[in-house]
Amino acid sequence: MEGFRLVALVTLLFEILGTVHCQQVLSTENDICRFFKDGVLLRKPGFCHIGIKCENFKSTTAIECEKDQFYNRNTNECEKTSSDKYCATACTSKTQGYIADTKNCQGWYNCKGSTTVSFGSCASNLVFNVNEGMCDYPENYSCKKKFSFCDVVPNSVPFLHETNCAGYYECVKDKLVEQSCEYGNYFDVETGTCIPRNKVNCAKYPIPDEVCGNKKTCN
Q1: Helix ranges restricted to H, the chain
Q2: Contact residues for 98 (Cβ-Cβ < 8 A; gap 6+)
Q3: Which residues constitute the signal peptide according to the record (predicted)?
Q4: pTM over 0.85, yes/no
Q5: Rounded-to-integer distance, Cα 78 and Cα 72, Å
Q6: Using CA atoms, how far apart are residues 160 and 31, in angstroms rounded to an integer?
Q7: Is residue 160 part of a domain?
Q8: Final residue before a domain boundary, out of 127, 145, 163
Q9: What is the number of domains present in the chain?
Q10: What value does the mean pLDDT take over residues 136-164?
Q11: The pLDDT of residue 1 is above 60
């Protein structure tokens, strides 16, 4: 019995850690492009009609579809429908009236059962207050939204693993998969590839500036 409890506890711990790794808090302070090389196109976290481009680890708007269209993160095109669960309407058979968007703090839907009567967003300095059913100031209603990487990242695009220098992530069939570089290599976010580790300044194991063989030239 004790062995069974231990196995169950370990399994639960791995599930919790997996959730932490898979999700990021939606915040303008934490730009998702810090994980990607220049030129990568992503869906903007919290929005289904906007595509962003990563440049110098910062995101810029690359394409903005019509409000009733969807940005396809794998084809980089605007489409009339989306099969992604992330972009599914928040309206269900049990919803009535104004409800919050599940993707971002400004968004709202006006629902009549599973039918979306209308939808929109509050001003950029406001959030949708679920309790009041209206746009409100952030100090009056605390809101934090999370997204999973594979809700916004195209399949087969490698990106930074912040706690493993020799590892990286990819979305494979919309599922987050941890990959490993060959022995002696680290993942280089600037190129999006695995290269010799003496050429990568990994945050977990930073290379001292005075060591020969790194990017600094030794005299």
Answers
A1: 2-22, 149-152
A2: 108, 109, 110, 111, 128, 133, 134
A3: 1-22
A4: no
A5: 6
A6: 13
A7: yes
A8: 145
A9: 2
A10: 93
A11: no
- CA distances in angstroms from 105 to 33, 85, 126, listed in the order given: 20, 18, 8
Spatial CA neighbour of 189 closest among 172, 169, 174, 173? 169
Token pair recorded at residue 157: 């695009």
Indicate whether 85 pLDDT > 90. no
pLDDT at 164: 93
pLDDT at site 72: 95
Q: Strand, helix or coil at 170?
A: strand
Give the mean pLDDT of 35-58.
95
Q: Give the range of the structural domain holding residue 181, as residue numbers without chain letter.
A: 155-219
Output phi, psi for 17, to 5 deg. -65, -40
Tell me if 198 is assigned to some domain: yes
Give me the CATH number covering residue 117. Answer: 2.170.140.10
CA–CA separation, 22 and 217 (whole Å): 38
Q: Residue 15 carries which side chain, given as an amino acid letter?
A: E
- Residue 150, both tokens: 């594979």
pLDDT tens digits for range 55-80: 999 999 999 999 889 999 999 999 99
